[in-house]
Amino acid sequence: MERIILIKYGELTTKKANRNLFISKIYEQMKELLNNYDVKITKNRVRMFIECHDKDLDEVVNIVKNIFGIHRIVIAYKVKTDIEEIEKNVLNIVKNTEFKTFKVETDRADKSFPIASMDFSKQIGALILKNIPNIKVDVHNPEYLLKIEIRKDYTYIYSKEIAGLGGYPVGIAGKGLLMLSGGIDSPVAGYMAMKRGIKLECIYFESPPHTSPAAKEKVKKLVSILSTYQASIKLHVINFTEIQEAIYKYMNHEYMITIMRRMMYRISEKVMHERNSLVLINGESVGQVASQTLTSMGVINSVTNVPVIRPVACLDKLEIIDIAKRIGTYETSILPYEDCCTIFLPKHPVINPKLDKAIAYEEIIDYETLIDHAVKNRETITIELNQKPFDL
Fold first, then answer.
1. Residue 281 has pLDDT above 90, yes or no
2. What is the distance between the alpha carbons of residues 263 and 242, in angstroms, rounded to a whole number?
3. Quick one: average pLDDT of 68-85?
4. Do the beta carbons of residue 149 and residue 109 sit within 8 Å?
5. Neighbours of 44 (CB within 10 A)
6. Does the N-terminal peptide bond of residue 209 adopt cis geometry, omega within 30 degrees of 0?
7. CA distance linking residue 179 with residue 341, whole number of Å
8. How far apart are CA 18 and CA 20, in angstroms?
């Protein structure tokens, strides 16, 4: 009897003709994330199985828990599909388990097996009652639920199931460019986009010497945390200094944030097209700051026709913080290093900007040349899973 990791698909089971494509994406990502382990991965339309050294089993499970598209993860005992073998191993398993009430559920996927599912559950239940004292069956709320999956060559026996992340496997929906600021919201937005199958690249705007090297290292660490869910992520670093200084020098300070965000959208669109991304992603949340009122978002968004998704747009701050803590980005996001959106912050930024005014202010400078220079001279960093930690 050996232990094996059994994977149950979730939402993917509704995909019908595309199901194999979705499963193959999970398989590819799993191989990439488990590259450092000696594993054998097999798959079919119903289940995926991971065989590994027993000493690595817990570590492998912890990695697999971060793969989108998985509904449940099970550590199961794999035995031959033979009635005597199943009964013998069931007894070995339950004798080492403490419980007062139990239930047996059988899934007879192999219809050539001679006993129907419900009848086999009763047979195994009777066997347990006969051999384990002071226990009873409870079909409604059992303390111990024993599951048996009977397949052609092997049968899998297990009790506990670990919840997976669900969603779609990363990359199935194509690639997106995440506008990553270093705050709490944008990493959460990136996580939520990955959960819907979007493979991420990230863009970050720095403004040296006004922003510190530590702010950039903070963003790199956030990308490293997100690589838990996508093994390799490219980070495009844009030097925004010239553009930001020109905005500060020549434009109405009330409109600084509006103009700055419009420039960021233009730059992001150019990088997005160069990188064959299909969508821009950001952490804007309706009404949270001046640039995120509906009026501001409309004026800012008007510089582009590409799709922009805002996964946290209708979440309140506490909901976003809860997700950030759960995915491990919160403690890094709150480190006190300023980014482009917080330096030169005016006392009274406009919350209902006028599009014609924004356009008029922008015409004061040759922003297209500045944007082209920033895009051409960007720094691109590839951040891998398990990369050496960044110094902060």
1. yes
2. 12
3. 95
4. yes
5. 10
6. yes
7. 12
8. 6
Q: Hey, what are 380's tokens?
A: 């691109």
DSSP letter for each residue of 43-58:
E-SSEEEEEE-GGGHH
CA-closest candidate to residue 124, choices 151, 92, 98, 152 = 92
Q: What is the pTM of this model?
A: 0.89
Of 262, 260, 247, the closest CA to residue 299 belongs to: 262
Phi (first) and psi of residue 192, to 5 degrees = -65, -35
Pairing mode of beta strands 379-384, 232-239: antiparallel
Q: Which two tokens stand for residue 20?
A: 């194999």
List, in order, residues 6 or more apart from 279 with CB less than 8 Å away. Answer: 174, 176, 177, 198, 272, 306, 307, 308, 309
Q: What one-letter code names the amino acid at 308?
A: V
What is the distance of C-alpha 280 from the center of its chain? Answer: 16
Convert the pLDDT of each residue in 88-97 to its tens digit.
Answer: 999 999 998 9
Question: Are the C-beta atoms of 282 and 245 separated by less than 8 Å?
Answer: no
Q: Phi, psi at residue 350, to the nearest 5°? A: -65, 135
- What is the predicted pLDDT for the residue at 220? 95
Q: Characterize the bridge pairing of strands 198-206 and 174-179.
A: parallel
The CA dihedral of 9, 11, 15, 19, to the nearest 10 degrees, is -20
- Across-strand partners of 79? 155
In 3D, which of 20, 19, 43 has the Cα closest to residue 31? 43
